Prior knowledge:
Layout: E1 5-14, E2 31-39, E3 43-47, H1 54-62, E4 69-74, E5 83-84, H2 91-97, E6 98-101, H3 114-124, H4 129-142, H5 158-170, E7 176-180, H6 188-203, E8 207-211, H7 215-218, E9 223-228, E10 231-236, H8 238-242, H9 245-250, H10 257-269, H11 279-292
Parallel strand pairs: 3-8, 3-9, 6-7, 7-8
Antiparallel strand pairs: 1-2, 1-4, 4-5, 9-10
Helix pairs in contact: 3-4, 3-5, 4-5, 5-6, 10-11
Amino acid sequence: MSNKNIIEAKNLIFTYSDEPDALSGKITAAVNDISIDIERGSFTAIIGHNGSGKSTLAKLLSGVFIPGEGSVQVYRKGCDTPLDCSNEDHNFDIRKTVGMVFQNPDNQLVATIVEDDVAFAPENLGIEPSEIRKRVDAALETVGLTAFAGHDTHKLSGGQKQRVAIAGILAMNPECIIFDESTAMLDPQGRRDIMDTILSLREKGVTVVLITHYMNEAAMADKVVVVHEGKVAFSGTPKEVFGNKKMLSDCSLEPPQCAILLEKLSDLLGCGNPCAINTQEAVSVIEKALKEHGIMPEKGDNNA
Length: 304
């Protein structure tokens, strides 16, 4: 095993019930023989339609669920011996290494004051009060809520509550944070704020795993893993994943909105069928095509 990866999951199988399905007569596994490695310092997005098994996989990777078969091992920085998620003696160290932010921010708040909520987890770890103060201040600064330290948590917006939840995880100094559809219940501004926070964490070296059904969010990742019917259907860079139209269709998924728009414009623009995974790429392709058709002047053309 290599410390290049922070999480290594092998042949995971997890079922919610031992009772056979009423229609098929078979026991259906939510996660069915999945193997996945999470590289240290990376940003991995896991996507899939509802019921595909992606959220179950997230809980297995974080140690919240224990697989019926297979293994999940977590590697702390500087330690060659992995933590086994199936070993109860390792639970404490796993919680300090891998944090998890869930979908509903209201379900994660435990205190009525923002800074008290952020301090809750490190207090339970037995950390010295002076160190807790430093961690709370640093975490609130990271998520942009320093000015809200003394505010009532229940009066915050959904996006602000989610950032408080992230700050509470950050105060534990985790090496990896798993976001389980953490933007799903937020408005567009709230989603943008959380994604800005995630990208900031990625820049600081925190390993990020994002479970999402927003393809525009997945397009920001280093690697995208597609889960379908409890299995990994495909994995690769965002361009590799979103350029594979047949696979996306088979898995009931669509590419990012900018890619859909560009595809609809491609015949009109005569630009072939390029894959754009973000707005900037789509704009560049459209501008190039317009210039080739003489519709948009080149920069510095004073005859326009």
